[in-house]
């Protein structure tokens, strides 16, 4: 059995409420003959007589009243669906949930969302700063509309797009022996030295481990595992030991970069969002803005 059209169900409900096919037709913006044909078609499709038609008006039969009561529930559920979809659309149009790992969150995302906010002053922006693994999880679970990560991937269940490039550097405090070393370190020397590192799941930690493995000497030996880039910087400045951090984090800090031969610490920063989903509204604007800024820098 093929289901009746929704407008036919609305017509049936209105006939029961108004006691007239003509008045129900006017309420739905259709002609009386068209309404009559619709009702006859529904009756044939369901194999039931739903409306008693008399000169004094129209009334629902007992079967018609049962079908109309079910139709009201169907239409109410549909109205709830449409209202919910409208609320979701308004949320996406009026708010943007962003997640970002430490390096993009500290150095790039604030500029991007500042420019987006200037273009849309009423837009509510929320930024959650965490490590790359968690950012990917938030995007995958739909808890962030878009995420920015510094890990090399792969990004299972996500679509990714390059938004910036970065380079990691080895740094020490000014009293460390490497600060006075004139020759570059070898990969083996770096791998043999315990380092101040980010926690597992951070993009920087993953990039360092991968680069050392590619050089044939990894992974890194942790001296301290810390939960933020600022904590790693502070530990190095305090003399805890060497670290590998973003070049963006070196400026304006009392750190000495140390050259290393034979290790590629370059990396790409990505935007991520759920696989198969097309970005729209503010999320799409933010992605485009990040791409434009990246191409100019």
From TrEMBL:
User: Which Gene3D superfamilies does this entry report, sorted A to Z?
Assistant: 3.40.190.290, Winged helix-like DNA-binding domain superfamily/Winged helix DNA-binding domain
**Keyword Transcription regulation attributed:** yes
Which terms in the Gene Ontology molecular function aspect does this entry carry?
A: DNA-binding transcription factor activity; transcription cis-regulatory region binding
Coiled-coil intervals: none
Please state what the protein is called: LysR family transcriptional regulator
State the InterPro entries in the record.
Answer: LysR_HTH_N, LysR_subst-bd, WH-like_DNA-bd_sf, WH_DNA-bd_sf
What species was this sequence derived from? Amycolatopsis japonica
> What is stated as this protein's family in its record?
Belongs to the LysR transcriptional regulatory family.
Annotated HTH lysR-type domain ranges read 4-61
Q: Which keywords fit this entry according to its UniProt record?
A: DNA-binding, Transcription, Transcription regulation
The answer to whether UniProt assigns keyword Cell membrane to this entry is no
């Amino acid at each position: 059995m093929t289901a009746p059209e929704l407008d036919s169900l609305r017509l049936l409900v209105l006939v029961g409420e108004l006691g007239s096919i003509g008045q129900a037709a006017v309420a739905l913006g259709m002609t009386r003959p068209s309404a009559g044909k619709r009702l006859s078609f529904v009756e044939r499709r369901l194999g039931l007589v739903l409306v008693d038609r008399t000169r004094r008006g129209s009334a629902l039969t007992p079967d018609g009243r049962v079908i109309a009561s079910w139709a009201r529930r169907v239409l109410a559920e549909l109205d709830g669906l449409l209202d919910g979809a409208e609320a979701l659309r308004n949320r996406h149009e009026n708010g943007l949930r962003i997640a970002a790992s430490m390096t993009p969150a500290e150095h790039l995302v604030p500029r991007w969302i500042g420019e987006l906010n200037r273009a849309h002053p009423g837009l509510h922006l929320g930024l959650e700063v965490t490590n790359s693994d968690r950012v990917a999880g938030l995007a995958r679970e739909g808890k962030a509309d878009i995420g920015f990560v510094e890990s090399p991937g792969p990004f299972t269940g996500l679509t990714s797009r390059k938004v910036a490039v970065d380079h990691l550097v080895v740094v020490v405090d000014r009293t460390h022996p490497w600060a006075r070393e004139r020759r570059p370190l070898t990969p083996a020397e770096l791998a043999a030295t315990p380092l101040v590192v980010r926690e597992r799941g951070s993009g920087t930690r993953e990039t360092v481990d991968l680069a050392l493995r590619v050089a044939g000497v990894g992974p890194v030996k942790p001296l301290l595992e810390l939960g933020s880039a600022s904590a790693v910087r502070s530990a190095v400045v305090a003399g805890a030991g060497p670290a590998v951090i973003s070049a963006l984090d070196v400026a304006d800090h009392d750190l000495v970069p140390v050259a290393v031969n034979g290790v590629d610490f370059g990396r790409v920063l990505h935007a991520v969002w759920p696989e198969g989903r097309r970005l729209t509204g503010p999320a799409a604007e933010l992605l485009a803005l990040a791409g434009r800024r990246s191409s100019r820098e």
